[in-house]
Amino acid sequence: MNQTVKELMERKSVRVYKEQQIEQEKKAVIIEAALQAPTAGNMTLYSIIDVTDPELKKKLSVTCDNQPFIAQAPMVLVFVADYQKWYDLFCKYEDTVRAPGMGDFMLAEDDALIAAQNAVVAAESMGIGSCYIGDILEQYETHRELFSLPRYAVPAAMVVFGYPAQQQKERVSL
């Protein structure tokens, strides 16, 4: 089995982190890997929010089902299904533009999730653990407001990253 497949098979959600920041070079690699993800029609129908403000992380830990480890994660990325940027571009060049439909949203959602998975795989390859936070979408109205997202943008996924604490490394996945 090659190294990539091995890491995919061994990956598990990590919710307890060492008190160690993720190096800027590694953070840049994780974000660049996300940006290299394939997208529908090469349109890149997503945006990434890098949450660095400790107060905002604290709010997210509450709004995402009271999970304190979110506030303690060294790196928090929110992947936004963002059709707004294309809508705005269309409006700039066309007199009449249809509102995005469910299919447009689904393409944007897929793009965001594929980018998130690329980030997770890149992090794993460097020994950095991660955990998807589904509550970012479950409470999307709250989070759209929290991030001041425009009409056609929705938080699709949030992933928290950090170096796993020893007990997390030793934990057996079920």
Structural class: alpha+beta
What is the number of beta strands?
A: 4
> What's the tally of helices?
9
Distance between termini?
21 Å
* CA-based shape: globular
Q: Which strands sit side by side, in order, in the main sheet?
A: 1-2-4-3
Whole-number average pLDDT? 94
Report on the structure:
This protein is of the alpha+beta class. It contains nine helices and four strands, in the order ααβααβααβααβα. Helix 2 packs antiparallel against helix 6. It has a single domain, classed as NADH Oxidase (3-Layer(aba) Sandwich).
Describe the structure concisely for a colleague.
The protein is an alpha+beta fold and 174 residues long.
Descriptors for this entry?
NADH Oxidase, 174 residues, 4-stranded antiparallel beta sheet
Element layout with pairings:
Blueprint: H1 3-10, H2 24-35, E1 46-51, H3 54-63, H4 69-72, E2 75-82, H5 84-93, H6 102-125, E3 129-133, H7 135-138, H8 140-146, E4 153-162, H9 166-170
Antiparallel strand pairs: 1-2, 2-4, 3-4
